[in-house]
Amino acid sequence: MVRLNFILIPLLLAAGISCAKKGGDSQETSVLRPLSRIELKSAEISAYMPQNRLLFSVGDSNNMDVVDLADPTKPVVQKTFSLDGEATSVSIHGNLIASSLLADPAWEDGFVELMQYVGEQPEDSSVVGGVKKIGTYKVCSHPDMITFTPDGKALLVACEGEPSEDGKINPPGGVAIVSLDDATFMDISPVVTVVPFDDVDVEPEYITVSKDSKWAWVSLQENNAIARIDVVGKKLDGVFDLGYVDHSKAGFGLDAIKDGKIRIENAFIRGLRQPDGIKAFETESSTFVVTANEGADVKNFDESKICGNEEMCKVKFGSRSISVFDGFSGKLIWDSGDALEREFARKYPKYFNWNSKKGKRKADARSDDKGCEPENIVIGTVNGRRLAFVGLERMSGVAVFDLTSIGTEHVAPKLVEYTMDPEDRGPEGMLFIDEKNSPLVGTPILIVNYEYSKSLVIYTIK
Fold first, then answer.
1. Helices marked H in 13-80
2. pLDDT tens digits, residue range 311-358?
3. What is the C-alpha separation between 336 and 20, in angstroms, rounded?
4. CB–CB of 272/301 below 8 Å?
5. In sequence order, which residues have a C-beta less than 8 Å from that of residue 296 and are 6 or more positions away?
6. What are the φ and ψ backbone dihedral angles of 26, each rounded to 5 degrees?
7. For the chain, domain boundaries
8. Do β-strands 269-272 and 314-317 pair in parallel, antiparallel, or remain unpaired?
């Protein structure tokens, strides 16, 4: 068993993993164009069923919205139905739908609810909105994210194991592997295996899976690390730490002062990456994992004790960047540095580091905290280019990076574009749909769930 006890302190002291080469300057293009917008009851995480052109959306309630995308210029909520608990995530494979549900209280073992889309059947009262419920299965504490493996043979669930409100109960985190032996589920109960992390302070956040369905990477946000799971062997294969960004280095500055001004400069500050969303992609010879470095506060932790002189050496949660790591060696390949903050300052100065959660359009409100908070990331190929789309929780909007050059020498990725509408706030779930599966025939699209504004926006990708 790989142990992860108190992994945070060694990471802060790992001076050899401070940064890699910084990305290039931003380019003025028009990659994303809003196509349509709709308000939802449940607008946090979505999954898409291409053969039926349906979107299933959940978030912060026991409701699931079914959105008809037959005409993506005019999305329509077809039906809203109830789940067996508060939903945190949803995933789709074929006609199968899976949602992770919290228990009550939330620190107890949660559940996975399995469903199948069978179409409207008026004569069958068990079918609601074309969806037939199959079963609910116990997994582990506080399931926060769920995903099918690409081959559809398993469901992976990230269980955070968050403590009770009074801190007296603190269950361990883990990853549940739900083996699916029958594609219909109608007569066979899935087998649930929980891969434990043997420590109550490890809280799995997000999962990405290799194309061959053999490997999964799990972000351990509070621990500033990524775990690798052997999906076939149903075991923890290894853990690598994510180091920190040294903001005193050229190209890695930040605005760390809340004074109503834009001051992106170098400072004796180390930013722990602590990603939320992560995404794996493969080249001919390597597998890489891209991280959205949001940052997360760690309870009962005083960063000043690490550096001694608090004024000369500070630690911040989150690095305000995205990074690329080798998925097996854990080597840092590239970090975007201060490219995001500089693009915000250039394009949207009056919204620079604003707090979109509160909706108050006051610039610089988050500079002394975690800044823009890169939340999630999806990757897609458009016209032969590998693009990463990054949702920024507090700044809102979406940044686009060109990662085509990853795996080649002497060519850095580039920030291509950042776009934001202050009416759509708090991007959470994101879906890239290629031109083959797009409801807008021949045109790839990006679907973004905005948690704070409870809106869903569809963008075309040029």
1. none
2. 445 889 999 999 999 999 999 999 999 999 999 999 999 999 999 988
3. 9
4. no
5. 221, 222, 274, 276, 317, 318
6. -70, 155
7. 243-422
8. parallel
